[in-house]
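Database export, one record per block. Field names are fixed; values are copied verbatim from the stored entry.
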Amino acid sequence: MHQITAVLVGAGARGRFVYGAYAQKYPDQLQIVAVAEPDGERRSIAAEEYRLSSDRLYASWEQLLADRQIADIAIIATQDRMHYAPTLKALALGYDVLLEKPMSPDIDEVIGMAEASVKHNRLLIVSHVLRYTPFWSKIKELIVSGRVGRVVSVQLSENVGYFHMAHSFVRGNWSRSEETSPMILQKSCHDMDILSWLIDKRCLKISSYGSLLHFRPEHAPPGSTIRCTDGCAVERRCPYSAIRIYEEAETQEWTRFIANDPSPEAVRQALREGPFGRCVYRCDNNVVDHQVVNMEFEEGVTASFTMSGFSHDISRTVQIMGTLGEIRGCMEKGEIALYPFGEEGCLVPVSVEEGGHGGGDEGLVREFLKDVRSRRRESGQGLTSAGASVQSHLMAFAAERSRLEDGHSVLIMERNLIGGSTQ
């Protein structure tokens, strides 16, 4: 096993706390040799954490990817609408690319990136991390084994968590669809991808409903203020209080995302001046806080998906109904129950791994590095290759279109790609 070198484009939350953290934890596997990041403070942190000299720190991806390849791979962890151009340039320079999800909120860019990976014979792996978890891998194994017969219907629920909803999709970077992506694409493309992978058939049509129901100005309680730090009369009993979530939390799970400096003074300044101190009812957000999606796949297989920002925890539950049996599971608890018809049901052992997304974050990087070492660059290779990821993106696009058209059914049209086709 030889060390893989990487350039990191975007040193924000995912760039630093997932990919950068992996390089620090497993230096024999991955070394970050250059970083592109517009925020000067983050560049300074990157210089210290990855031991980079000033000539390996860049204010933009254009500077980093200007002329020649300087590492084995490129990790692109920029915002959703900043994926296309650096990905195409990195592929053209000869990098294998690990790309944050979603690929892009533009369907032509999604197709273009998938085609470019084939054209340049480079790996382009999308961070659909759930496929790399022990939980979902075991469920896929049970389906493939035939224990439940032919899959007839699947129900999947994503419980976003009230605090995650407030942090990321009301106050945070993904609160406005025109600046990033619709909720079904940004947050729930993981779920569209898992459904596509488990069912393993083309999705033909979709209908969807959802809205921004709660986090609106008219729902602001009497006595509330623009910011939680402005003397809000209801702050102490508000579950969405920024002071409670960021300053008084037992861990820094969310605090680390609002200030590069974790000191109490820096956190309080971030709440007074930055977006994360705002009242959740007085933000400029417009993405939905709940949504349901119904899908029909080939051969009459159906699936339903529910996303809600109103849950006490962050979790996913699934029910898979087949002709010979049923599977029920809860990802966060690592619980999978198998019920073969006519037999006693049983619990299926599955490990619960530490780390983000049930071990999927580390699993993604680990498998990508293996693919790079083995030079698996044939079209469609890689568990979450760009080609494999196109269908889930098209499903998300169709779901959002249906939601905006009052739930009207949307057909998913086939889109041809170089080296193959997908829908």
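Remark 1: Residues 386-404 form the longest helix (19 residues).
Remark 2: The chain is about 35% helix and 20% strand.
End of record.
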